[in-house]
Amino acid sequence: MNLTPQQAMRAAVAVPGVPRDEDGPVFREPWEARAFAMALALHEAGVFTWKEWAETLGAQIKRAQAAGDPDTGETYYQHWLATLETLVAAKGVATSDVLHRYRDAWDHAADRTPHGAPIELTQEDFGK
């Protein structure tokens, strides 16, 4: 999913705490931008409100801090991804089992893919 600069800035302003500069959200890794884009797409599809998102993200960050996350900002999008998974499961878009099954399959696909080659998910990545 490609975001227009206007969409990205609108979402960055709507959700407090999004790392950003004057041009919009700032990402350290490509997966962070993809997680951001997925959240925006699910919000625009009506899966959750920004209020629900902010409450769920806040709870996720508090749990992580209680477990020892140093809250340096480096794990922000890990919390973002966990929030996505929580809301997708809570809203019935996909079950936690399905999310974990696909995460494990992607991990398997990444492990077998040579560096620099595109990762392609196959049936073998799902195991049994």
TrEMBL record:
Q: Which residues form the Nitrile hydratase beta subunit-like N-terminal domain?
A: 21-105
Which organism does this record belong to?
Bradyrhizobium lablabi
| Pfam families xrefs | NHase_beta_N
In terms of NCBIfam families, this protein maps to: nitrile_acc
What is the name of the protein in this document?
Answer: Nitrile hydratase
Q: Which domain of life is it from?
A: Bacteria
Query: Which InterPro entries does this one have?
Result: CN_hydtase_beta-like_N, CN_hydtase_beta_C, Elect_transpt_acc-like_dom_sf, Nitrile_Hydratase_acc_put
